[in-house]
Design brief:
single chain, 179 residues, alpha+beta, 4-stranded mixed sheet, 7 helices, globular
Length: 179
C-alpha cells in the first residue's frame, strides 16, 4: 500500500498526480487554498520549476507560507560531496538561485536555515509578502563571496572530484600491488 492509499484509508483526501500551475488553479477554483505549503526534498525532482512555483503562488493564501527543503549546492561543492548527486535530481539550488526563482514569481524567500540533512540542505520560508530576514541576507552575502553564481565555482568542484577519483584509483592500484 502506498502513501496515497494509506492517507485515503485514514480519511485524508489525497491526490496522486503531479503538482503545478494547472492543478493549483483547479484546487483554488474548488476552494482548496493553503495556509501552509510543504515540499521537502521535492524541488530537485521537478521538471517544470516555473509551473511548480506558479502553482505554489496560486494555491497559497495571501497570508500563507511555503516551507521547502532542498539539497544545498554550496555544501555539496564545498565538501566535494559528488556522491550525493543523484540522477533523478534535475537541479541543485543555492539561496541565490532560489531567491531569483521566487522573485520571478512575486514570492519572497524570507528566512533560510542550514540543516544537516543530506550533507547540507536549506529549509526555506517563502511568502507572498516581502520580509527578508537576516538569515537570507547573510547567506546571499556568503554565496556572493564564494562565487556560487559563477561557473568557475563549479569547474573547480569538477576538478576536485576528478582529483579525488585519481587519488582513490592510485590507492587501489597500490593496495592491489601489495597483495
Amino acid at each position: 500500500e502506498g502513501p496515497v492509499e494509506a492517507a485515503r484509508r485514514a480519511g485524508v483526501p489525497s491526490l496522486c498526480t503531479f503538482f503545478g500551475r494547472d492543478l493549483a488553479s483547479q484546487l483554488k477554483q474548488e476552494g482548496q487554498v493553503a495556509d501552509l505549503f510543504l515540499a521537502n526534498n521535492v524541488l530537485a525532482h521537478v521538471a517544470d520549476l516555473n509551473g511548480f512555483v506558479d502553482g505554489m503562488k496560486i494555491v497559497l493564501k495571501e497570508t500563507g507560507m511555503a516551507v521547502l527543503e532542498v539539497h544545498y549546492v554550496a555544501s555539496l561543492v564545498d565538501h566535494c560531496e559528488f556522491d550525493t548527486v543523484y540522477h533523478q535530481h534535475l537541479c541543485y539550488f543555492s539561496a541565490t538561485s532560489l531567491d531569483r526563482l521566487f522573485r520571478d514569481h512575486d514570492l519572497f524567500l524570507n528566512e533560510v536555515e542550514l540543516i544537516p540533512t543530506y550533507g547540507g540542505s536549506l529549509r526555506l520560508l517563502v511568502e507572498h509578502r516581502e520580509a527578508v530576514g537576516e538569515s537570507v541576507c547573510r547567506l546571499l552575502e556568503d554565496e556572493a563571496v564564494k562565487g556560487v553564481a559563477r561557473i568557475d565555482y563549479y569547474l573547480e568542484f569538477a576538478e576536485q572530484a576528478r582529483a579525488m577519483k585519481r587519488s582513490l584509483l592510485e590507492l587501489l592500484h597500490d593496495l592491489n600491488g601489495d597483495g
